[in-house]
Design brief:
The complex is a heterodimer of chains A (about 725) and B (about 400). Chain A has about 725 residues and is mainly alpha-helical. Chain A has four domains: about 50 residues, no CATH class; about 170 residues, no CATH class; about 190 residues, no CATH class; about 110 residues. In chain A, the strands form two sheets. In chain A, strands 2-3-4 form a three-stranded antiparallel sheet. Chain A has a three-stranded parallel sheet with strand order 6-5-7. In chain A, helix 3 runs antiparallel to helix 4, helix 13 runs antiparallel to helix 14 and helix 23 packs antiparallel against helix 24. The radius of gyration of chain B is 21 Å and the shape is globular. The chains are: A mainly alpha (about 725), B mainly beta (about 400). Strand 1 of chain A pairs parallel with strand 25 of chain B.
């Protein structure tokens, strides 16, 4: 069972051994985990010089303990899910009503709507309690379940009290509230029990039983008139004392005639009946005065009941105390017996008056919370509800916030604070992340900030990924591919949630992490697909850089296969992309063109278009390859031309190539080698810029040679830049 | 529904090991433990110069060790995981005066290192600038991802160094962009102490390591050097990018935390300091630990500090409003001396709503703010043997 104070088992420190433990230069340390509200606790060495000479042998290690805070009981899962749906519906509706262009909402309509939401919460609690009962029949000693059942019962009573006080089903706060409070009391705190009455029924003269009058008084106070009138009628007919008979008979008559506010459409009609009923009390009071000096069976009790009927406050408080009732019952019956016109507006002052006479148990959070609700002290109520259960306080404050009370700004802050706390608690069960985010999404900037962080920390699973054969996961627990172990969040679900709630920053960061993982798995195509969704050009460029690097490290074969994974649609921008995104498509063009070049080469194709395609990559007006690659591209062109002496390139392309060569050569000699020769040096594992420049020298020779060949060809009148056997021998 | 419970304990020893009182060799004990971004991986470093990584099997709830290698030539002091956007990267710092960058998987380096042969972890870079001043490295922390792959390093001579990774696909390339002597930022009220007694590693005999190199000569007869005993070294980045690159630094024996702002033009300034207490007196014992809370939509920052005097302080910091004031507002939101002995660590949870503190009293305390902004204890983990009925498995 969770507690705010725990001892580790086995303990790190022996009993009363802190001083010795400290002298051995030990301390404890802890580290939070982003997963499931947990933290690691472990012993560590204090950063102080140690005694010399401790041998470094052995393989013993200290334990690392994992503790969890705010754990959600496993039994609550369904309850949490069901109530989250109600919360979401309530908030959605409210957002629509509060939309800028919406008309002001009728408070009565608002109250009735929220009454229904509250009713749904109560139905869910009731259903959950039923399932608990069914489970407890099978496992009666399940402590967690028993504890949670107790909590849910408290939550039910408090939530239903909030409904009675703040959400009248008819929408009128100024209406009389006595009967509604009475129903709440009788539903949640059943007393006396049916068994008490059954026991008395079996007796011939039940009034002689010691519990008889306590039973009668309790039933009377709580408006349970049926057993009262039954027993008093028996008394009126069977008792030997005429005074007892008369008093019992008059009480029965008076109670039978008592009007109920629920029987009237109009309050004024109820008040008329009430006035008439009170006028009829004179028979009862006269009889009491007549028999005041005589002794008869049940005299004191029937006088008390008479005083109660006539609305004596002192008698009510005393009777409640004598019958073992608390301040709670006293407040609820106050609106029946003493102040039948009591409305919700009168409750705080009446509650304070009663509580002064009958104090609240300061150790019972349920009592404290209900007292605060009766007094309409929302801040106090929030604090006490929080002591009961975080679900309760979060949802209570949420309902109150939606009502636009006079304390709206305070309630709004309370609602946000407790909803955020509740959502954070839900994360102790990581499978509830969707619910947690839904709650946070209605909590303004702060809620979105927390949601953002929680989403970022969710481990995810990527569906439909084909892994390279025999691949070993570099970080198998951060990205699950294919194999599923726990219900880990699906990446697409997380991203969809980010989009739905406008959490752009979280989406972008998650996609970047995904791209990193996929790139590590050499799944560059998939990485680009994800990054293109967020138009994250910086990250896209990084993937292309890694992909290009594949050629430099692993050669053309792997490079061509990897580039082939990239969907070609990214080469054809729709025209709506930002200029920044076009930077990516340009670079992608380079990568794909270069891969196609190597693909053709591997298939043994030797055509002038190969050299032209490389020349294209060196032309800034067409596809501008990164400068770092220029040296390598020049060498490739050189290799192409030297391999096939029959090959030549168009003069325009040759001019570009030669211009690039000069630029690379000159700037590299002036110290810009890294800028132009990086790819070349890496591809051929060259140790120095000088080595790379020597290679470019040979390229220059080949190019000049080829250019001369082309010119000769043109002089020959063929008008062709490329000709098979017509090309004159360069020698 | 709320409260604390121990959910698991992991160790290389069998769970049912009856020898609970077996002496634990301090040179073998986990010195620091660092959990990765998603909470499914864990790295521990120890005084035996090794780093060990673990993964969580969520089906069983068990952590299993997946790698273990000798990382340094002296005890390893701290670890820090880089943001997963940059890969599976770990930085470690040590009393051997170096910081090392490790990457899991990837290409084998050209020069193979025998130290972690067989490990999936590759040593990508060794940052050894601290060797020039002969100081051990006491704290290391990767910057928030928005600032790039950047590393802050604090050594025992109170020099803060900031390194930038130049090429993200090449972890061997790190530029030293800042070298800041924290002691010079604001003249301390106490005279600087001799630096000769401060650089030794715990658990080393006169600074001698397994490879015979010296790590300093501070420890004589096993008595702690004064600065070692009285000082503290800790850093923490501000996780929010909107206020620029901010880092809180506690160094040496001064009871101050300095918050520095670093600019892209390689200049820096002290934007504010956290005094050791509300009265602002600076002659207090050293701050041993500092932690900057994630902002998560809050309008103010929270920084927690822990000191040798046993106090945990929580500071509420508000950035300047450009049209009202240019000064940061610093207020003490809570101060607690429950540990009654030196506080070794303070740390925030990922949303900055719960603070943990660990102390030499052997206890862990958790703190949470109430609705009204009052910080209160929300949990207490006793590591001392308790009464049987109170103990939880």
């Amino acid at each position: 069972m969770a507690s705010d104070r725990i001892h580790l088992t086995p303990p790190i420190i022996d009993k009363n051994g802190v001083t010795k433990w400290r002298e051995r230069n030990r301390t404890v340390n802890c580290t939070f985990s982003p997963r499931a509200n947990s933290l690691a606790v472990y012993q560590s060495a204090n950063i102080l010089p140690q005694p010399i000479g401790t041998p470094a042998s052995g393989k013993q290690e200290t334990k690392i303990y994992f503790a969890q805070w705010d754990a959600v009981p496993s039994t609550r899962r369904k309850f949490i899910t069901d109530t989250s749906i109600v919360y979401d519906a309530l908030r959605r509706g409210l957002n629509l009503l509060r939309a800028k262009d919406a008309r002001p909402v009728d408070p009565q309509f608002l109250m009735q709507t929220h009454f229904e939401s509250c009713k749904l919460y109560l139905d869910i609690i009731r259903k959950t309690l039923k399932t608990y009962d069914a489970r407890l029949e099978k496992r009666p000693e399940d402590e967690e379940l028993l504890h949670d059942k107790d909590l849910l019962e408290v939550m039910y009573s408090c939530m239903s009290l909030l409904q009675v006080i703040f959400l009248p089903f008819h929408g009128f706060l100024a209406a009389v509230v006595g009967r509604e409070l009475m129903h709440w009391l009788n539903e949640n705190y059943v007393t006396p029990t049916g068994e008490d009455g059954m026991g008395l029924l079996e007796l011939e003269e039940p009034w002689l039983h010691p519990t008889f009058w306590n039973f009668i008084k309790t039933c009377t106070i709580r408006l349970i008139f049926r057993p009262v009138t039954h027993f008093l009628k028996r008394m009126a007919s069977a008792h030997t004392n005429p005074a007892t008979r008369e008093m019992a008979d008059l009480i029965v008559t008076t109670l039978d005639q008592m009007p109920s506010s629920e029987d009237y459409e109009q309050e004024s009609d109820y008040f008329d009946s009430l006035r008439a009923w009170k006028t009829g009390h004179h028979r009862l009071t006269r009889a009491r005065e007549r028999h005041a000096k005589s002794l008869y069976e049940g005299k004191a009790e029937m006088e008390d009941i008479t005083n109660l009927i006539t609305g004596k406050t002192g008698t009510l408080v005393r009777m409640c105390t004598e019958c073992g009732m608390s301040w709670r019952e006293a407040i609820c019956v106050f609106g029946i017996w003493v102040h039948p016109r009591m409305t919700r507006h009168d409750l705080p002052s009446i509650a304070s008056e009663v509580i002064e006479e009958m104090p609240v148990d300061p150790t019972d959070p349920e009592e404290l919370l209900q007292a605060a609700l009766f007094q309409k002290d929302i801040v106090k109520a929030a604090s006490h509800a929080n002591d009961v259960d975080i679900w309760l306080v979060a949802h209570m404050m949420d309902i109150l916030e939606s009502l636009s009370l006079p304390e709206a700004s305070v309630v709004s802050r309370l609602q946000k604070y407790y909803i955020i706390t509740y959502a954070e608690q839900l994360m102790s069960d990581p499978s509830m992340w969707r619910i947690a985010i839904a709650y946070l999404s209605y909590c303004g900037i702060r809620g979105m900030g927390v949601a953002n962080e929680l989403l970022l920390r969710l481990p995810f699973r990527i569906a439909n990924i084909d892994l390279p054969a025999n691949h070993k996961y570099p970080d198998s627990l951060t990205v699950f591919v294919g194999k599923q172990t726990l219900p880990m969040a699906e990446l697409d679900d997380i991203l969809e949630t980010c989009r739905r709630h406008g959490l752009k920053q979280a989406e972008e960061t998650i996609v970047r992490v995904v791209a990193q993982k996929l790139s590590a798995l050499r799944l560059y195509g998939k990485a680009i697909e994800y990054l293109a969704r967020t138009l994250d050009v910086r990250a896209l460029m990084k993937v292309l850089q890694l992909l290009s690097n594949e050629y430099l490290v692993h050669g053309a074969h792997d490079f061509v296969l990897l580039v082939d994974q990239i969907p070609s649609r990214y080469l054809y921008p729709s025209g709506q992309e930002s200029p920044d995104f076009l930077r990516f498509t340009d670079h992608l063009h380079f990568v794909i063109t270069y891969a196609e070049y190597h693909h053709d080469l591997s298939r043994g194709i030797r055509s002038p278009s190969l050299a032209t395609s490389l020349a294209l990559l060196l032309d800034p007006s067409r596809v501008d390859a990164p400068k770092e690659w220029w040296g390598l591209l020049l060498v490739d062109i050189g290799d192409l031309l030297v391999d096939d002496t029959l090959m030549s390139v168009p003069a325009d392309d040759m001019n570009i190539i030669l211009a690039r060569l000069e630029e690379v050569y000159t700037k590299s000699r002036l110290g810009g080698g890294g800028e132009y020769l990086g790819a070349l040096m890496k591809r051929y594992e060259m140790k120095s810029v000088t080595e790379a420049l020597q290679r470019l020298e040979s390229v220059r020779f080949i190019l000049v040679h080829s250019a001369a060949r082309s010119m000769l060809s043109e002089v020959g009148g063929k008008g062709r830049l490329w000709g098979g056997n017509q090309t004159p021998d360069a020698d | 529904m709320r409260g604390l419970e121990v959910v698991d304990s992991s160790s290389s020893r069998p769970r049912d090991d009856p020898d609970k009182s077996a002496p634990v060799n301090p040179r073998r004990s986990s010195h620091r433990c660092c959990i990765r971004f998603h909470g499914l991986r864990l790295a521990t470093c120890s005084l035996d110069q090794r780093i060990k990584t673990w993964t969580l099997d969520e089906t069983t709830g068990n952590w299993a060790s997946d790698d273990d290698w000798k990382a340094h030539d002296a005890p390893v002091c701290r670890l820090s995981w880089a943001h997963p956007e940059y890969g599976t990267i770990l930085a470690s710092c040590s009393f051997d005066k170096t910081v090392k960058i490790w990457e899991e998987g990837g290409v084998e380096p050209a020069r193979g290192s025998d130290a972690n042969a067989g490990s999936r972890w590759r040593e990508r870079a060794t940052l050894s600038e601290s060797r020039t001043t002969g100081a051990s490295v006491r704290a290391v922390e990767f910057a928030p991802r928005q600032f790039g792959l950047k590393l802050a390093v604090l050594s025992s001579d109170s020099i803060l160094r900031i390194y930038d990774c130049v090429e993200l696909h090449n972890l061997a390339t790190w530029n030293l962009t800042f070298t800041i002597d924290v002691r010079l930022l604001q003249p301390p009220s106490t005279p600087p102490m001799s630096t000769t007694d401060m650089f030794a590693a715990p658990g080393t005999s006169l600074g001698a390591s397994s490879n015979g190199k010296s790590y300093g000569s501070s420890v004589t007869g096993g008595r702690p050097g004064k600065r070692e005993a009285d000082g503290g070294w800790s850093i923490s980045w501000c996780k929010d990018a909107t206020t620029g690159q901010l880092i809180a630094v506690a160094a040496d024996t001064y009871g101050l935390v300095r918050v520095l702002q670093l600019s892209d033009s390689r200049s820096h300034k002290t934007v504010f300091t956290l005094p050791p207490n509300a009265s602002g007196a600076t002659d207090s014992p050293a701050i041993t630990t500092v932690a900057w809370a994630p902002l998560c939509g809050r309008r103010f920052h929270l920084i927690a500090t822990g000191g040798r005097e046993g106090k945990v302080n929580i500071w509420k910091i508000s950035p300047p409003h450009t049209n009202v004031t240019t000064e940061w507002s610093v207020n003490l939101a809570g101060t607690f001396d429950d540990h009654q002995s030196a506080v070794t660590r303070v740390e925030w949870n990922v949303t900055g709503t719960i603070l943990s503190s660990a102390g030499n009293d052997g206890n862990i305390r958790l703190w949470r703010s109430t609705y009204g902004g009052i910080w209160r204890t929300m949990g207490h983990i006793h590591t001392e043997h308790g009464d049987d009925e109170e103990m939880h498995e």
